[in-house]
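User: I'm new to structure prediction. If I give you an amino acid sequence, what do you actually give back? Let's try with this one:
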Amino acid sequence: MNDKYAPLFEPITFRSGVQLKNRIVMAPMTNFSSNPDGTVTDAELAYYARRSHGVGTVITACTYVTQNGKGFQGEFGADSDEMIPSLRRLASTIKEQGAEAVLQIFHGGRMCPPELVPNGDVVSASAVQAEEGLPPIMPRAIPRALTESEIQSIIDAFGETTRRAIEAGFDGIEIHGANGYLVQQFFSPHSNHRNDSWGGA
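Assistant: Good question. You get back a string of structure tokens that encode the predicted 3D arrangement of the chain. For your 201 residues, that looks like this:
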């Protein structure tokens, strides 16, 4: 091995005191394998067990923080306390292999298929339909602009999901703010046409 790569295999300690056995991180990768009720499957646990051995940290695939934030079929949930046992199984599986476990959390916003959210009520920063892109998708619904109180509720839901992650044994969380999902929808001038404190020039 080239000596310049040796630091990748050295432990690192963060200011918080958390120590990683090395600097190699498994990036979050969607696997579309969860149960319809949002709980993790044995197949998912086997997937993570196989990939968690040897790396310092594993970041899971994204999990939705509210019922109306589910972005795709086969995604696991963290939107209620009833999901904590499922999340605990996932965290334990990763940590048993010697890696730190990080839960990636998100809200799909206007990218959510209407059939996956209550009453088909797709929401976003503004009522702007997503453009078709990759991977190939069916035309998206025109979302409803979130009210200010709903925005605050979703922010609170991110906090509650973080609490559940802690209770389930995860070592950290990662907020998914890319790929056209809700956090990015608020930052994008394409999807955010608001003129209140949550948008505007």
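You can read the tokens as a compact description of the fold. Here is one thing that stands out. The mean pLDDT is 93.
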